[in-house]
Amino acid sequence: MSREEDSVERSEKPSAKERMAIPRVEMPQREGRERNKDFEEVNLGLGEQAAIREAQRCLQCKTARCVEGCPVGIDIPGFIKLIAEGDFLGAAAILRKDNNLPAVTGRVCPQETQCEVKCVRCKTDAPVAIGWLARFVSDYEVEHRSGRPKASAAKTGKKVACIGSGPAGITCAGELAKMGVDVTLFEAFHKPGGVLVYGIPEFRMPNRVVADEIENLESLGVKIETNVIVGRTLTLEQLTGEEGFDAVYIAVGAGLPSFMNVPGENFKGVYSANEYLTRSNLMEAYDARADTPIIRGKRVCVIGGGNTAMDAVRTSKRLGAEESMIVYRRAREQMPARAEEVAHAEEEDIKFEFLTAPVEVLGDEKGWVKGLRCIRMRLGELDESGRRRPVPIEGSEFEIECDLVVVAIGTRANPLLTKATAGLKLNKWGYIEVDDNMMTSIAGVFAGGDIVRGSATVILAMGDGKCAAASIDRYLVGRQNG
Amino acid sequence: MYELVEKKSIGSGVTQYEIRAQRIARSRKCGQFVIVRALEHSERIPLTIADVDIERGTITLIVQAVGKSTLEMTRLEKGQGFADVAGPLGQPSHIEKYGTVVVIGGGLGTAVVYPQAVALRNAGNKIISIIGARTKELLILEELAASVSDRLILTTDDGSAGMKGLVTDALKMLLEEDETNVDAVYCAGPVIMMKHVSEVTKPLNIRTIVSLNPVMVDGTGMCGGCRVTVGGKRKFACVDGPEFDGHEVDFDELMDRLTTYRDHEQKTLKRYKDHECKLRQQ
Ligand SMILES: Cc1cc2nc3c(=O)[nH]c(=O)nc-3n(C[C@H](O)[C@H](O)[C@H](O)COP(=O)(O)OP(=O)(O)OC[C@H]3O[C@@H](n4cnc5c(N)ncnc54)[C@H](O)[C@@H]3O)c2cc1C
Ligand code: SF4
Ligand code: FES
After folding, report:
1. Could you give the CA distance from residue B78 to residue B85 in angstroms, rounded to a whole number?
2. Is the C-beta atom of A130 inside 6 A of ligand 2?
3. pLDDT digit string (tens) for A202-258?
4. Which sequence spans correspond to the domains of chain B?
5. Minimum-distance ligand 3 atom for the alpha carbon of B227
6. Does 2.40.30.10 match the CATH number of domain B4-89?
7. Contact yes or no for B24/B49 (Cβ under 8 A)
8. CB A361 within 8 A of CB A369
9. Whether pTM exceeds 0.90
10. B44 vs A contacts (CB less than 8 Å)
């Protein structure tokens, strides 16, 4: 990033009128039909001048509505003000106070339903691009910081185990390490990062971003042990017993894939999104020379309308599909995916079949998928989630020809750890119950992220990790004094 | 890194590895497996834990070199290490006192059933082992099997050792003997073999436990790649299995699913061998 010549805008304080006149910045991005052939990142990031100009659009509201929309209450006007002043590292420091993974959330937060939707400028033109600014300062920080964070607090002599290295586990581990706690992060896979490395593809969440955060953790003194499946390699009782941990944080995510339960789902060429994305991302099967195989469909149907479905369908295009489509049983407006992902998918020539539900996967005589029999839906009454329930239209069945089907209709709690742990209270869906301090029914054992909430978001998982770290600290101090 | 403590060849193309993995060794129960990546770029492959040595903190794996991943593994030398070993995974074998149990291992399946035979014998069962292979060189673990069996029957397709024929022929022979009363059958090996064994025992209502080997990625229930149909229901072999009631398994579906990556496997293997060839010529 080169600093542009004229830095007038940096010193000048634009008037309110001038601020209002600045249009929302556009994210420089690679052209849809070019980028849908590789796995390089789609968004290129804002340059310094563009970021400053965008920051100047912020009206520095006294009661900042955007902050109310942020699940972790980041001081949004605060960090944006420093960007406008050109103090990017200062801005990054403000972000980091409430957000341990700003380079991650700047890329994956659904800003359009959180902070940006609340921005006052929505009423006049367009919201301040809070997400892109967050991403800009965090990327700037990676390039320009003077060193990695170090834990400066005195050692407490306490040991905590964090189980699962997704955003919840990473955040909790980092926070505790900063408080002087001796933290070990256990991960079942061979590589840490959770959904950020096995699920979200490189073109949206580059591996280097996650790897950098993992290095930060190591710099803080967190020990990372991969290939440890708690509940199998070690039990929770062993962690608090012979392994000598004073407290445990469970952040194992919600990784159990759901299937559609329609005939033909076991034909070759039907993947869960988890399997498809894990093969492509974690096992690097997107590289044709990789040892791990992946089926490269020519005509691909991805079932679902969330971020996972968008990631899968865009991956399939990059793996060489001629036609890739989303099959979703509700309407466009009801898709839970981030708006930007849907827009990006459209630019990449992804087709959409809305109000369509599969009723059967069709196979050929050799057991390979050859199509999908679907039924059209219409929107009926409101359901529990407040969305209009899709109802099948009788007699509207039709077939879509395809050779790969990826099922991305959600995930549930994986019972592997919870079943192996006596006394851990679960709700009826198998998620872990916690109290206001995020402590489970077992004293000293805390939990957060998707394994408590059900599939949610990166920012909520991170927020949980941070709260849990504070609770764990109080618990450890309380026990010492008590 | 997981240190390779000991390595020896135990048959043509079959290698026994002893790997340091203290925690796995301590937690492992009979019937469980590990997911292994030999090198940084390798695939994740499931392998049954044939044995453990808790004092040495090691686990033993028996591997037949058939594809690139398993061939590369044979290049590792004592003192070097496996990149990743995760486990123990899957449900432990169901072990109880039945009376007389026939334990059937086909090819590499012997490495799976041998530890079961040990556990079943310790539970007070009489053990009759049937070990089969295509030909003499491919028979493995006969001596170990003999040491835990009250009776051992070897079979080879070509008659080069033991009885000429299939393991099912030996099983039928046993079932026809008046003096032998078979209370349960444990079986591991090629899917087609497990299918035929289950077909023999089903009409006789003899409890038959098979150990399935579908394609796996994580081994912890998060991908569903290992799904199999058992009693008409979807099961994940890595967490619900790998052992299931042989009379309930849809073997044809499993056999078919196992061919998913055949082309890819052949291509990677060929590329690997060509590459090795070139290296040798240099
Ligand atoms: C494809 C995809 C795309 C997504 N896109 C977005 C997005 O754009 N924006 C957004 O906000 N959210 C998105 N999400 C949701 C978001 O990723 C999750 O809400 C978030 O990652 C949850 O974090 P977590 O720390 O609770 O768990 P995870 O990230 O799931 O991490 C859990 C970790 O625990 C490990 N683990 C599991 N069991 C054990 C065990 N027994 N022992 C040891 N380790 C174990 C797992 O291997 C995993 O690494 C997406 C999810 C997916 C799958
Ligand atoms: S609501 Fe919008 S304009 Fe107001 S402080 Fe937040 S980002 Fe700035
Ligand atoms: S191997 Fe992934 S669920 Fe069984």
Report:
1. 16
2. yes
3. 999 999 999 999 999 999 999 999 999 999 999 999 999 999 999 999 999 999 999
4. 4-89, 100-258
5. 4
6. yes
7. yes
8. yes
9. yes
10. 190, 283, 292
